[in-house]
Amino acid sequence: MSQSAFAETYQCRSCLHRDLHLIVDLGAQPLANSFLSREALARMEPTYPLPLLYCSTCHLVQIPAATKPDAIFRDYLYMSSFSQTWLDHARNFVDQVTQRFGLGPQSRVIEVASNDGYLLQFICRQGIPALGIEPAANVAKLAVDKGVPTRVAFFGIATARTLLAEGFTADLVVANNVLAHAPDLNDFVGGFPLILNREGVATLEFPHLASLIEQTQFDTIYHEHFSYFSLLAADALFSRHALRIFDVEKLPTHGGSLRLYLCRADAGHAKNPAVEALIAEEQEIGLDQAATFRDFAGACRKIKNDLLRFLIDAAEAGRVVCGYGAPAKGNTLLNFCGARADLIAFTVDRNPYKQNHFLPGTRIPILAPEAITTAKPDYVLILPWNLKTEICEQMHHIRGWGAKFLVAVPELSLF
Predict the structure, then answer these.
(1) 243 pLDDT higher than 60
(2) 323, 383 in Cβ contact below 8 A?
């Protein structure tokens, strides 16, 4: 599709303008979390276009909505609690935010996209009333089993109005790594001012666009992630809905993330100078200019070529490569590279719901972690590179037979 065709076909999901520019086209790919059963291997897999676009009007980077959210979150297999790193992150956040904003039994916390209760369990343990909103019914059940009250729903204006009518308002609304998942951004964000108390606070975390571009994290682009945010783009979006960003923190999670603190426009929270400082930093590196993204596609192709060259050389030398993890980002990487089971024998994952399935597109089998010990491969490709330290600690014993770890992003590295 030509550059002009993108502008004619799509409009920005935030500001609704059509001033869109193509950054990179990752081809036609399956849904990154649509893991295959053995029976499904005999059937055709649907694939969808995956172009990354930049809006010159509001600076939002985005992909077109290729399918409806209920198709993505039906039988969803991502559970946050299988990562100790993420559990520790959630526990530390709860300790920090409850102290900063004086939350206690008299308060109420609502988490949007609460997954399996990984975060709200720590809120509940402090005796603070909590409610999770989670669209995936199978994942919500796991939260309820932990004792976390959870409602199965997509969050937006309609859900917020329902909560408001039932008397649910919040002193804190948490929305971690969900803003990117909302195909209708204005409906999603429009729900926040409805359920926030007058001086209530919303915190949102999402991967920072600056990290994606600077470290060529193209594997974090997949159909479940509709939008990729800078603070510039987020500020334009939230301001449109009478929400004000009063503080921001940089986080190491997911290769580099932001945590925003928001309140209603008329609330009394003082604005931290860090907000304007980060906006100035983003402008300095050019996140408000289409030309900044010109070289990104070439950097993606280099990662692809380097990984394929390594895998082919290893196969021809009789070396065995397996993967660790079955994250969505790994599926974008492997499908873009066209690396299948002839180059990567299998991958493993601690999540038992993914085991004995196959990666979408590449159809690489997913086994339990013990399979690595049995097979004794020469190389282990870490697909969730953001958890590299945790995985190396879990699998340190592979060094006993001389195996090495491998990551492909931001550059090919063996260690």
Answers:
(1) yes
(2) yes
